Amino acid sequence: MRFFNRISLSTPESVELEFTLAGIGNRALALIIDYNILAIILLVFWGAWLLFFFGLMSYLEQLEGDYSQVPYWLLGIALLASFVIYNGYFVYFEVVRQGQSPGKRIAKIRVIRDDGRPVGISQSVIRSLLRAIDDLFFIGTLFILFGKQEKRIGDWAAGTLVIQEETGNPSRDRRFSILQGKSSDTPDNNNALGISKEAAILAEQLPEIADLSQLLPDDFAVIREYLRRRRQMAHIARTEKSMQLAHQLQTLIHLEMIPQGTSSDHFLEAVYLAYQRQER
Amino acid sequence: MASGSRSSPTEPLSVGNVVSTGFQLYRANAKQYLGIALISVGWSLLPILALIALAIIAAAVGGATGEPAAGIGFFVLAFVVVIVLAVYCFAKSLANSALISRLAFSEISNQSEDFLASRRFVDSRKWSFLFTQILVGLIAGGAVIAFYIVLGILFAATVAASGGFGGSGGNSGVAAIFGLLIFVLVIAALVFFLWLGARLFGAEVPLAVEAQSSASQSIGRFWNLTKGNAWRIVLVLLVAVLVTLPIILVSQLLASIPQAIVENGVASGSATVTTLAILSALISYAVSVLLNLLVLPFWQVIKSVVYYDLRNRREGLGLQFRDR
C-alpha cells in the first residue's frame, strides 16, 4: 500500500511533476509550531500595548478635556492589530519564503498553487482568512483526513496544495529548481559520509575486479542511505547490517572475494565511490 | 518515501510522517482493525457486565429464599470467581490490542502474515502482555510515588519554614526558596514523565512482533530502541493527540446530550430523577467506550509505526537491496 498520498501536476511549461502531499501529521506539527510562535508574538504585543495604554492614560489625566472614549479606541486598534498580526504572519512568510511559514519550514512542507507555481498574496490571504473556519470544530482536520487531495476549506477556496519538501535526494529536489528556474545539482559531500582512505584505494581497483554495471540507482541509494545513517545506528545492529549489505552486494556485482583486510564498511564505501565515479 | 513503487519506507520518517503513515494504515484497514478493537473492548467490558448480572442474580436469590444472607453469600463467592475471570479477560483484551500492532507492523514492513497465524501468535502470549502491562504500570506508579514523596517533603519543609500553619515568626525567605523548589520540581517532573512515557509508549510492541521475547525483554528492547529518540516520540504523541481531538470533541458533544435531557427532566419533574441520572451516566459511559473503540486502533498503529521507524533508524531495518 501507499503510505502517502501523491499528486501529479503538469506545469504551464507542460513539465510533468509528481509531489507527495504533506499529510495530516506534518500539517498538525506545522500548526502546533506556528500557533506557539504566534502566541508568543501576540503575548509580547499585548504586553507592550498595556504598557503604552497605562502610560498614555496617566499622561492624559494631567490634561484637560474628556478622554473617556480613548480606551475603547485603543482596544479597537489593538484588536485590529492582533487580527493583522495573525493573518500577516502566515501571509508574509508564505509569500516571502515560497509557501513556508516557520512551522511548515520545520515540518518540511510548503504551500503551492494547484498548477505547481509558488503561492501569491491573494492565495495566501484567502487561506489565512478561512483558517478560522477550518479551526472551528476542527473542520479543516476532517477535510484533510478524508479528502483525496488533503485540502482544507481554505485550500479549496484559494486553489492551493500543501506538499512535502523532499530533501536528501537530489534528483527530486530538482523539481523546485525547475519551478524557480534555478539549477541545483549538489553532489553528496563525501566527507560528510565519513569515507575512509582505504575505501578510496579499493575504489580504484573495483571496476577491474567486479561488474559495477549490475548496480541499479536504487541499490546505490541504499548504500548511500546506510553510509549516511550508520553513525546513528546501534553498535551491534550496525555491524550486522553492514555485513549483510556487503555480502549481498558482493553477489550482486559478481565479486569473487572481498580483498583481504577490508571491513564491510570499507567495502560499502568503496562501492559507493566507484559507482559515483562511473556515473560521471 | 523515496519512490512511489517502494512500499516500505527506506528513509527514516519525520515526526509528522509517523502520524500520517499511522493514519493511512488505519484508514486502509479500518474494518479489520475496528473489528479487533471491538473484541478487545468487549473482553475488557465482560467482567463489568458479569458483576452487574451477579448483583441482579444475588438480589433475586436473596429475595427468593427470603434470606438476604444467602444472597450476600452467593455474591461474595461469585465475586471472587469474577475477579479471577477478570484477569483472564484483561489479558485477552491486551492480546487483541497487540494484534492490531502486529498486523500494522507486518503491513508496513511488507511481510504479509496469515491473519489466523497472527491471532494465534498474540493469543499464545496473552499472559506476557498482561505481565508487560503490570511491569509498565509498576514503573510508572513507582515514578509517581517517588514524585509525591519528594513533593510531600518539600511541602512539609515549606510549611515548617514559614512557621507552621499558624504563620507566626517563620522565615519567609526560606519558605520562598522551598516554594521555588516545589515549582522547579513540578516542572522537572512534567518533563520527566513525558520522557518516561515516550520510552515506554510501545513497550509491548516488540512482544507482539519479535519471535523471541518476554515481558521484561520487550520493555528493555523498546527502552534501548528509544535511546536518543525520546523527544521525537514526545512530539509524535503531541501531534497524534491533536489529530484525535476532533473525535474527542464529537464524543463530548454526544455525551453532553443526555446530561441536558436529565437537567430538563429535573426542571419539569416529569420522571424520577434517579432513573434519568442512571440512564444518562450509562449513555455517557457508552459514548466513552465507543470513543475508545475508535481511537484504540489508531494508537496501536502509531505504536507500530514508531517501532518500525526506530528499528529503521537504529538498525537499518528498511535498508536492503531489492530482489531481482
Structure in words:
- Chain A is mainly alpha-helical and 280 residues long.
- Chain A has helices at 23-62, 70-96, 102-107, 121-135, 139-146, 153-158, 170-180, 197-209, 217-229, 235-252, 264-279; strands at 6-10, 16-20, 109-113, 160-164.
- Chain A has a two-stranded antiparallel sheet.
- Chain B is mainly α and 324 residues long.
- Chain B has a domain at 132-227.
- Chain B has ten helices and no strands.
- The longest helix of chain B has 43 residues, at 273-315.
- The two termini of chain B are 20 Å apart.
- Chains A and B meet through α1, α5, α9 and α10 of A and α1, α9 and α10 of B.
Q: Number of DSSP helices of chain B? A: 10
SSE-based structural type of chain A: mainly alpha
> What is the N-to-C order of secondary-structure elements of chain A (H for helix, E for strand)?
EEHHHEHHHEHHHHH
Portion of residues in beta strands of chain B equals under 5%
Helicity level of chain B: over 70%
Structure classification of chain B: mainly alpha
Overall pLDDT metric of chain B = 86
Shape of chain A: elongated
What is the overall pLDDT average of chain A?
86
Across the major sheet of chain A, the strand order is: 1-2
Low-confidence stretches of chain B at least 5 residues in length (pLDDT < 50)? 1-6
Instruction: Outline the low-pLDDT stretches of chain A.
Output: 168-174, 176-187
- Written as H for each helix and E for each strand, in order along the chain, the element string of chain B is HHHHHHHHHH
